[in-house]
Write a structure and sequence with these properties.
CATH superfamily of the largest domain: Ribosomal protein L9, C-terminal domain
Number of domains: 2
CATH topology of the largest domain: Ribosomal Protein L9, domain 2
Number of strands: 9
CATH architecture of the largest domain: Roll
Number of helices: 3
Order of helices and strands: EEHEHEEHEEEE
Distance between the termini: 69 Å
Structural class: alpha+beta
Radius of gyration: 24 Å
Shape: elongated
Oligomer: single chain
Largest sheet: 4 strands, mixed
Length: 148
C-alpha cells in the first residue's frame, strides 16, 4: 500500500515521502498514529506542492544567509569593554556580547547558541568569531575589541 508520510518514520522515510509499505503496517500503525495518510491523488499533489514551496523558501533563506555572511566579512565588529592598562579585559567578551554587537551594528538577530568563539576573548585587539546563519552557511567575523 502506498502512503504519504506526515512525519519522519525511522526505517521507512522522511516527512512528505511517498513510500510502499505493507497494508497491515499502514492500517494498524502508521495511519492510526497520524504518521501517514493513504497516498491518494489529492494528497500526493498537496505533498508535491508543499515540498516545492519549502524548497523555494529554503533557497531564499540560504541566499539571505549568504548575503549576511558577506556583510559580516566586509566590516569588523566593534566591541568596547573595560580593560586594564596592560590590555587585559576585566572579564571576557561572551557570545551574548557578540550577539548584541551584531544586532546593534548590522541589524541582524542571531541566536547566541550559533556563535562560536574558538578561544576566550580576554584581551584588547582583533579576534575571529564564527557564526552559524543557516544549516550550511557559516560566517567568519572579525571582532575588534577596544578598551572603554
Amino acid at each position: 500500500m502506498k502512503v504519504l508520510l506526515r512525519r519522519d518514520v525511522k526505517g521507512i522515510g522522511k516527512r512528505g515521502d511517498i513510500v510502499e509499505v505493507s497494508s497491515g503496517h499502514a492500517r494498524n500503525h502508521l495511519i492510526p498514529n497520524g504518521l501517514a495518510v493513504e497516498a491518494t491523488e489529492g494528497a500526493v499533489e498537496n505533498a508535491v506542492t508543499q515540498k516545492r514551496t519549502q524548497a523555494a523558501r529554503e533557497a531564499a533563506d540560504r541566499e539571505s544567509a549568504r548575503a549576511i555572511a558577506a556583510r559580516f566579512a566586509a566590516a569588523p565588529l566593534d566591541i568596547v569593554a573595560k580593560a586594564g592598562a596592560s590590555g587585559k579585559l576585566f572579564g571576557s567578551v561572551t557570545s551574548h556580547d557578540v550577539v548584541e554587537a551584531i544586532a546593534r551594528q548590522h541589524g541582524v538577530e542571531v541566536d547566541r547558541k550559533h556563535v562560536e568563539i574558538p578561544t576566550p576573548i580576554r584581551e584588547v585587539g582583533s579576534h575571529t568569531v564564527h557564526v552559524g546563519l543557516f544549516a550550511d552557511v557559516r560566517a567568519t567575523l572579525t571582532v575588534q575589541v577596544r578598551a572603554g
